[in-house]
Amino acid sequence: MADKEPKWALIVHGGAKEIERGDEQANRDGVRQAAEAGRRVLTDGGSAVDAVECAIRVLESLPVFNAGIGSALNAAGGIEMCAGLMDGRDRSVGAVTVIRGVRHPISVARRLLPEKEILLAGEGAFIFAREQQLELIDEGELRSDAAPAQQEHDTVGAVALDRAGHVAAGTSTGGLTGSRVGRIGDSPQPGCGLYADDRIGGVALSGDGETIARVVLASKIMNRLEVGEKPQEAITSALSELPEVGGDDADGGAIAITRDGRVGWSHNSQHFAVAYVHERMNEPGVWLAKSEDSTAP
Ligand code: ASP
Question: Helices marked H in 76-216 — which ranges?
Fold first, then answer.
């Protein structure tokens, strides 16, 4: 990163997973499109919360990602989604879990931000979405033939810093293929799948949700950022706890931005599609695999 840190920045990811051969371009295009949309919000003077919501709505619309359209099917063949949004300005949280029949779970989470409740589940979350006149959708429309048959970890996420110095982080997921009905992973839980605090920065995760929650991984990363570790180092160190607790298959990835505009990511999954853009970049940079991460700024 150059001498002066950027005034605004945005990073998005398309999930810690193994990308099927042939799906690489769709993953690249998807995260780029989401970063472009979020960038427009920030350059137009929008807030970090606006940018995160906007970027995640793009990812939820694309069947290549396991969020919104293209969500994974659970053990009963149904779609239950989770999303979370956190505003670093006042540390408010809006999250929904085991929600069905909405097109954009992240927007339901967004509407919950000003409310007292931080997390609504199942029918309650759906009723809230309907009250808010958000877009409802038949479950059939959320299924996608274009979605990879065996979705692995594939939560989407975004973190933004706006010109006013506010940070926001968001997640959205269809969960894990074949999981028990009613299962909830890390994604809607603050301190686990996401966190944002203007005094420190923000982080969003993907990966083995049960293990991430058991080690409160977002919180661990925030603690490291707070003492001045760079985002990539903080994430890499924190991720190393996953196999200790969840075994060798417990993988994950995270993106982060600090309050002073430093951006980073790390993953121990095979792939982790990331796009990132800040004030001084003409267009988003896109990375897909570990082998490409060394070219990251
Ligand atoms: N973390 C998500 C969950 O456990 C899964 C994922 O990242 O794909 O629901």
Answer: 105-112, 122-131, 139-142, 209-214
Q: What is the pLDDT of residues 189-243, one digit of tens each?
A: 999 999 999 999 999 999 999 999 999 999 999 999 999 999 999 999 999 999 9
The protein residue with its alpha carbon nearest to ligand 1, atom 8, reads 153
Q: Does domain 9-281 have CATH number 3.30.870.10?
A: no
Q: What is the pLDDT of residues 17-72, one digit of tens each?
A: 888 888 899 999 999 999 999 999 999 999 999 999 999 999 999 999 999 998 98
Which of 120, 129, 75 lies closest to 101 in space, CA to CA?
Answer: 129
Which helix (H) or strand (E) segment is 49 a member of? helix 48-61
Probe target for ligand 1 pocket from 12, 80, 173, with the most ligand atoms within 8 Å of CB: 173
> Domain residue spans in the chain?
9-281
pTM for the full predicted model: 0.94
Question: What is the Cα–Cα distance from 250 to 245, expressed in whole angstroms?
Answer: 8
Is the Cα dihedral 262, 259, 288, 62 positive or negative?
A: negative
DSSP category for residue 92: E
Nearest CA to ligand 1 atom 2: 209
User: Any idea what the Cα angle at residue 107 is, between residues 202 and 160, rounded to 5°?
Assistant: 25
Beta-bridge partner residues of 201: 197, 258
CA of residue 14 to ligand 1 center, whole Å:
11
DSSP 171-198: EEE---TTPPTT---STTSBTTTEEEET
CB 252 within 8 A of CB 242: yes
